[in-house]
Amino acid sequence: MRSLPGPGTAERAGTPVAVAARAATAVSLAAAAAVVLGEVTAGWGDLAWLPLVAGLLLGLPHGAVDHLVPAYRLRWGTARLAAFALGYAAVATVAWLLFRAAPGPALAVFVLLSAWHFGTGETAFADLRAGRPVRRAVLPAAVLGGLVLLVPLARGAEEAAPVVAAVVPGSDGTLPPGMGTVVLAVVLPAAAALALALLLETRWTEAAEVGALAVLVLVAPPLAAFGVYFGCWHSVRHTARVLAEDPANAPDLAAGRLGPPLRRFAVAAAPPTAAVLAVLALLWSAAGGWRGLVATDLPLLAALTVPHALVVAWLDRAAGRGTVPRAASAAPVPTRRS
């Protein structure tokens, strides 16, 4: 399995990308450990839906400033920024309409798109954290995406069936016979092989993270595992990337200050997040419980995922050309005082 070179100068020098990435790494690992510890010590039982719903809500803001990311890199003005935001909303609307028109095929496409988005998010984050240009790592991305999404779906097929049945009218929500077994038989050995390959290249952090994700999806209840991954792992790491993209954050991140960048992000993300939360509040009032909320919310999340994944793919491509975020390029080079 082909992988990439080891850590580079960005991680050692403490660039804005690395500063935000280290904080995101600590948060994500701590959250995953907390959910696993909760299962081992007391068991989540009937409360496994709490990490799921909490994770879905916590993850909402991470894509709320997607419309600003191209502006950070391309120095767009207000008119282009507004046009891009309208285009983003148009793509999400079309995706929602397609999901409502053909929920079965749309759900299958959504699952595959999400798995790929999660997997490439992991490999891109690891590259940026280590100071490497973002590279296409097809096999590692496919393995990681399968691990964090397909394995919980396979393990939690019974719990997810009512939700799937509500999303896809006329279906019973169950997986085809044997599919869950096939997923586990393929993804888990592939994840073990990926972890071994990373260990052999002395990429200790990445190998440990593959192990941590495997423990999370195999020990924690499937719904809880996905909730904590989405809200406290994937979303937090994407937010770290966005913080490093904003040129206004350069001085603070270069000095190791995360508070002001996080406040700027919160202010920018608040209006879109509030709009989505308002829609979710209306859905909740008519949902009749958490399963109904997730089933009603799924087409909305799928619709938002499509333009979000496109923006992230563009960002990965830009980073793969060796261009650094403007925050990183604008940051002063730290000097060491004796």
TrEMBL record:
Keyword Transmembrane helix: yes
Coiled-coil spans in chain: none
Membrane topology per record: Multi-pass membrane protein
Ranges that cross the membrane: 48-69, 81-99, 105-125, 137-157, 177-200, 212-236, 265-286
One protein family per Pfam: BCD
Record keyword Iron-sulfur present: no
InterPro entries for this protein: Blh_diox (IPR022270)
Subcellular location as annotated: Cell membrane
Residues at which Fe cation binds: H62, H117, H234, H238
Any GO MF annotation of the entry: beta-carotene 15,15'-dioxygenase activity
GO terms under cellular component: plasma membrane
EC numbers: 1.13.11.63
Catalytic activity: all-trans-beta-carotene + O2 = 2 all-trans-retinal
Cited function: Catalyzes the cleavage of beta-carotene at its central double bond (15,15') to yield two molecules of all-trans-retinal.
Protein name (database record): Probable beta-carotene 15,15'-dioxygenase
Organism the protein comes from: Geodermatophilus dictyosporus
